[in-house]
C-alpha cells in the first residue's frame, strides 16, 4: 500500500489534516486504533474554538453548531481584581465558539471514513531518518509505503515513542472536573473564569441550549484527597454561585481527569512529524489545547501543500523543519503563560493576592494589552 502521507490518529486534528490535504489533491491514509463507530451525539465534553480554528473547519466544509462567546470575565475569587475580555477589543463579533466534542469528532470522522484504517495502529517505522520513502508496519502486519508519518495520536503517541525525542513533562497535581449545569439567569454570551482557593472554575455556554453550560473546574489534589467528587461538587458549587451571582444546578455526571503538561524538544525526526497533543499539551484553564493543535495542523498543511504545488518533495528536511520553527516558539509561549497563571493564582500568600488584584485591575484598563493578548489567543498572530 502506497500513500504520500500516513496519519497516526483519527481524532479531530488527524481527520482535519487528511480532509484539507484531500481538497488539495494530496492523498493520505489515517490509522485509527478505535473501532469504526460514532460517538454518542451531544455528551458532556466541549471544545472552545478560536476564530482561526473555526474558519479552518469551515474552509474544508465542516460547520459545527456553536455557542457564541462575546465576553470572557476573569476574576480573583478571593479579592476584587477582574478582567473583561470583549470581542469589541479586537473589533470582532465574537471571541470564541463552544462546540460539542462528540459532534465535531463525528463530522470529521464521517468526512474521512473512506481513507481510514480502523482498529489498527502503528507498530514500527522503517527508514524514517532520511528523505527516501519510509515503511510503516501496522499491528496486523499491513505495510504502508509513505513519505511522511504525521503523529496526531495524542499524549501517548506511538509515533512520538518511535521518534524517541526528549522533552519536559510536568504533573500539576490537580484534577479537572467537567460537567453540565443549568443556569437560571441569562448569561448573554458570556464565559466566566474564577481563580480561587477552591480551584480554577470556568463556565461556558453550550450549543443549542440557552440555559445549559459546561463547567471545567481544576482543583488541587490535596483539596479533594479522600473526598468523593460528587460530594465535593455538591458542597462547593454554591461558592462559585455566590462569586458569579448565578444559580446553577448539576445536569450530568461528573467526569474527572488528572492534569499535566508536556513539550518535546523537537517536533520532527526524519520523516516523522508530531502535531498537536503528540508534541505538546497545556493546562486547560484557557481552553487553548485544541487551538494549538489546529494551529500546528494549519502550518503543517500549508508547508506540505506549498511544496506539492511547486513540484518539490514533501518530505524534504527543510520543509519539515520550517513547520517546527513556525510552531515551536508559539506553543512554548502559550505553555509558559498558562503555567505562570496556574502558579500565580494558586499561591495564597497575602502579598501575592494583593498583587494579583492590582494586576488584574491594571490589566483591565489597558485596551492595547488586552487586544494583543486576545489576538494571540484567537490565532490571529500567525507566523
From TrEMBL:
<dbReference type="GO" id="GO:0006744">
    <property type="term" value="P:ubiquinone biosynthetic process"/>
</dbReference>
<feature type="domain" description="FAD-binding">
    <location>
        <begin position="2"/>
        <end position="328"/>
    </location>
</feature>
<comment type="similarity">
    <text>Belongs to the UbiH/COQ6 family.</text>
</comment>
<dbReference type="Pfam" id="PF01494">
    <property type="entry name" value="FAD_binding_3"/>
</dbReference>
<dbReference type="GO" id="GO:0004497">
    <property type="term" value="F:monooxygenase activity"/>
</dbReference>
<keyword id="KW-0285">Flavoprotein</keyword>
<keyword id="KW-0274">FAD</keyword>
<dbReference type="GO" id="GO:0016705">
    <property type="term" value="F:oxidoreductase activity, acting on paired donors, with incorporation or reduction of molecular oxygen"/>
</dbReference>
<dbReference type="InterPro" id="IPR018168">
    <property type="entry name" value="Ubi_Hdrlase_CS"/>
</dbReference>
<keyword id="KW-0560">Oxidoreductase</keyword>
<comment type="pathway">
    <text>Cofactor biosynthesis; ubiquinone biosynthesis.</text>
</comment>
<protein>
    <recommendedName>
        <fullName>FAD-binding domain-containing protein</fullName>
    </recommendedName>
</protein>
<dbReference type="InterPro" id="IPR010971">
    <property type="entry name" value="UbiH/COQ6"/>
</dbReference>
<dbReference type="InterPro" id="IPR002938">
    <property type="entry name" value="FAD-bd"/>
</dbReference>
<dbReference type="InterPro" id="IPR051205">
    <property type="entry name" value="UbiH/COQ6_monooxygenase"/>
</dbReference>
<dbReference type="GO" id="GO:0071949">
    <property type="term" value="F:FAD binding"/>
</dbReference>
<keyword id="KW-0503">Monooxygenase</keyword>
<dbReference type="InterPro" id="IPR036188">
    <property type="entry name" value="FAD/NAD-bd_sf"/>
</dbReference>
Amino acid at each position: 500500500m502506497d500513500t504520500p502521507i500516513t496519519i497516526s490518529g483519527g481524532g479531530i486534528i488527524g481527520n482535519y489534516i487528511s480532509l484539507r490535504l484531500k481538497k488539495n489533491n494530496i492523498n493520505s491514509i489515517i490509522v485509527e486504533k478505535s473501532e469504526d463507530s460514532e460517538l454518542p451525539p451531544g455528551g458532556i465534553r466541549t471544545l472552545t474554538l478560536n476564530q482561526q480554528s473555526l474558519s479552518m473547519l469551515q474552509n474544508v466544509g465542516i460547520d459545527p453548531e456553536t455557542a457564541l462567546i462575546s465576553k470572557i470575565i476573569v476574576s480573583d475569587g478571593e479579592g476584587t481584581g477582574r478582567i473583561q475580555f470583549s470581542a469589541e477589543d479586537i473589533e470582532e463579533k465574537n471571541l470564541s465558539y463552544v462546540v460539542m466534542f462528540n459532534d465535531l469528532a463525528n463530522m470529521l470522522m464521517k468526512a474521512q471514513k473512506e481513507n481510514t484504517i480502523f482498529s489498527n495502529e502503528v507498530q514500527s517505522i522503517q527508514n524514517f531518518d532520511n528523505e527516501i520513502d519510509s515503511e510503516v508496519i501496522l499491528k496486523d502486519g499491513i505495510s504502508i509505503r509513505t513519505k511522511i508519518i504525521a503523529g496526531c495520536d495524542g499524549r501517548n503517541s506511538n509515533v512520538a515513542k518511535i521518534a524517541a525525542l526528549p522533552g519536559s513533562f510536568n504533573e500539576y497535581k490537580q484534577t479537572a472536573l467537567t460537567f453540565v449545569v443549568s443556569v437560571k439567569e441569562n448569561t448573554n454570551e458570556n464565559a466566566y473564569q474564577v481563580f480561587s482557593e477552591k480551584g480554577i472554575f470556568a463556565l461556558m455556554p453550550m450549543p443549542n441550549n440557552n440555559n445549559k453550560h459546561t463547567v471545567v473546574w481544576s482543583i488541587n489534589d490535596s483539596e479533594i484527597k479522600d473526598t468523593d467528587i460528587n460530594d465535593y461538587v455538591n458542597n462547593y458549587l454554591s461558592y462559585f454561585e455566590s462569586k458569579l451571582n448565578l444559580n446553577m444546578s448539576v445536569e450530568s455526571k461528573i467526569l474527572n481527569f488528572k492534569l499535566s503538561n508536556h513539550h518535546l524538544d523537537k517536533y520532527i525526526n526524519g520523516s516523522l512529524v508530531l502535531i498537536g497533543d503528540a508534541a505538546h499539551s497545556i493546562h486547560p484553564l484557557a481552553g487553548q489545547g485544541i487551538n494549538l493543535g489546529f494551529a500546528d495542523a494549519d502550518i503543517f498543511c500549508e508547508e506540505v501543500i506549498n511544496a506539492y504545488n511547486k513540484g518539490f518533495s514533501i518530505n524534504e528536511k527543510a520543509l519539515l523543519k520550517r513547520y517546527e520553527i513556525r510552531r515551536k516558539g508559539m506553543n512554548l509561549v502559550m505553555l509558559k503563560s498558562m503555567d505562570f497563571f496556574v502558579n500565580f493564582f494558586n499561591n495564597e500568600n497575602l502579598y501575592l493576592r494583593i498583587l494579583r488584584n492590582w494586576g488584574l485591575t491594571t490589566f483591565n484598563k489597558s485596551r492595547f494589552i488586552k487586544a494583543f493578548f486576545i489576538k494571540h489567543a484567537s490565532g490571529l498572530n500567525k507566523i
